[in-house]
Amino acid sequence: MAKAKFRLKLARQRGEQTSKEFGFDRFPIDPFDIAERSDILVEAKDPQMDGVSGCIIINDDGVGIIYSTRVRSQGFRRFTVAHELGHYFLDGHPAEIEATGGFHASRAGFTQGNSSIELEADHFASGLLMPTKLVRDVLSGENVGMPGITALSLDADTSLTSAAIRVAECAPYPVAAIVSQGANVCYGFLSESFKTLGVRRFLRKDDPLPASATREFNTDGTNIRSGKSACAVSDLSCWFQGPSSVSLDEEIVGLGSYGLTLTVLSSEALPEDPYEEDDEDEKLLEQWTPKFAYRR
């Protein structure tokens, strides 16, 4: 598990390095431009293949990326192209794709469960479009929780969900981003400082939502389809079996045509040195030789 987590960090770092190598030092970062300058042909496709966000083709004629127009969100399309670029730039991915016929279809957006090659590409895309320094610059001028996520989504031109996940990875304050559908959890990300609040149970895919404002929100499908939002006060015991004395802001928004709900849980508490662990990670990353694992 620890090695798998570290590989995802490496993938994010490779995404950040790639944006820097192509001269991007401010938002938004353009994956279409990176593809063009890498001699990669990018084309839109009709929304006929349900569930497939895009694909990459690698053969003797060159490299091509196709992205779906099924989802209208420009942010999601940009993430899809960035995801496919991950399959091109990450060590081992081109060889893996060529070994399976040179064609690889993806469902970008952190929905791939335990598929290591897809999760690595997702994290590459996250790092490419939202480098850590630029994310923290945005968050430093915004309030904790949804305001910072919304600001990042607008500045980076990404979906609200991918911005929420990146905030959970970069924020110095305790924050959790949870995506749900109906009465169940789809996936969630917790900031390192959130875990220090006293989390005793982590939410997994298909776990039932706790009795919360989010669960009540999801009982009305129009909330999701219309992109409505809601706010409530919760506590750590409700969501993670932690101390009930730890109060959480619960911010909820329906994600429209996705059929999903994004919940952001946050606290004003701050660790003494929020970036100390990141400094140690950077030292390790400089010494690490990546060995990616596939077909998991």
What would you say this structure looks like, in words?
- This protein has helices at residues 2-21, 31-37, 74-89, 93-99, 116-129, 132-139, 146-156, 160-170, 192-195, 213-218, 221-225, 236-240, 276-287; strands spanning 40-45, 54-59, 62-68, 103-106, 175-181, 184-190, 229-235, 247-254, 261-266.
- It has 296 residues and is of the alpha+beta class.
- The protein has 2 domains: 2-129, Orthogonal Bundle (Arc Repressor Mutant, subunit A), CATH 1.10.10; 133-266, Beta-Lactamase (2-Layer Sandwich).
- The strands form 2 sheets. It has a 5-stranded antiparallel beta sheet with strand order 6-5-9-8-7.
- A hairpin with a 2-residue loop joins β2 and β3 (62-68).
- α1 (2-21) runs parallel beside α5 (116-129), α3 (74-89) packs across α5 (116-129) and α7 packs across α8.
- It starts with a helix and ends in a 9-residue tail after the last helix.
Helices and strands, with pairings:
Elements (H helix, E strand, L loop, with lengths): L1 H20 L9 H7 L2 E6 L8 E6 L2 E7 L5 H16 L3 H7 L3 E4 L9 H14 L2 H8 L6 H11 L3 H11 L4 E7 L2 E7 L1 H4 L17 H6 L2 H5 L3 E7 H5 L6 E8 L6 E6 L9 H12 L9
Parallel strand pairs: 1-3
Antiparallel strand pairs: 2-3, 2-4, 5-6, 5-9, 7-8, 8-9
Helix pairs in contact: 1-5, 3-5, 7-8
CATH class of the largest domain: Alpha Beta
What would the average pLDDT be, to the nearest integer?
A: 88
Secondary-structure element order, N to C: HHEEEHHEHHHHEEHHHEHEEH
Strand order of the largest sheet: 6-5-9-8-7
How many domains comprise the coordinates? 2
Shape: globular
CATH structural architecture of the largest domain: 2-Layer Sandwich
Number of helices: 13
